[in-house]
Design goal:
By secondary structure, this protein is of the alpha/beta class. Helix content is about 15%, strand content about 40%. The chain has 2 domains: about 70 residues, 2,3-Dihydroxybiphenyl 1,2-Dioxygenase, domain 1; about 55 residues, Signal recognition particle alu RNA binding heterodimer, srp9/1 (2-Layer Sandwich). It has 2 helices and 8 strands. It has a 4-stranded mixed sheet, with helices on one face. A 4-stranded mixed sheet has the order 5-8-7-6, with helices on one face.
């Protein structure tokens, strides 16, 4: 078994995942409702929504989709966090700087007693934490 992250977006999943790919690299797969056999189960107004996407590489696995429950309100939560760790300070700073575009930086990258640490909420509202030795 493997643990991975799954994120929900409110109609901008494709944009978010393409941005993450530009920052982190990896292979990106995106399926829209209208391009699948499931299009019959959704109103035409939802056919442009992403029903499944995955960004993956050797050290990365992020899955996401747009909110697919029109009868329920999409509520942005703070329970999801992506944690980037194990790289060098230089590698960590490169990714942090890329994800910082239009982000709210809550903890600038800096040396702390437990290592090099920083955190931000990106332009899509997703929280990221970074740690390097």
């Amino acid at each position: 078994m493997k643990q991975s992250i799954f994120l929900f977006f409110d109609g901008n999943c494709k944009q978010a995942m393409e941005f993450y790919q530009s920052c982190l690299s990896g292979k990106l797969e995106i399926s829209k409702v209208g391009d699948t056999h499931l299009r019959q189960a959704f109103p035409e107004s939802m056919h442009a929504r992403v029903i499944q996407s995955k960004l993956s590489s050797v050290n990365l696995d992020i899955s996401a989709c747009d909110w697919m429950r029109p009868e329920e309100e999409f509520v942005r939560g703070n329970m999801n966090c992506l944690y980037i760790s194990g790289g060098s300070r230089e590698e960590t700073k490169v990714i942090f700087d890329k994800l910082s575009v239009n982000a709210s930086i809550t903890d600038p990258l800096k040396a702390l007693p437990f290592g090099y640490y920083g955190a931000l909420n990106d332009q899509f509202g997703v929280r990221w934490m970074f740690h390097a030795d």
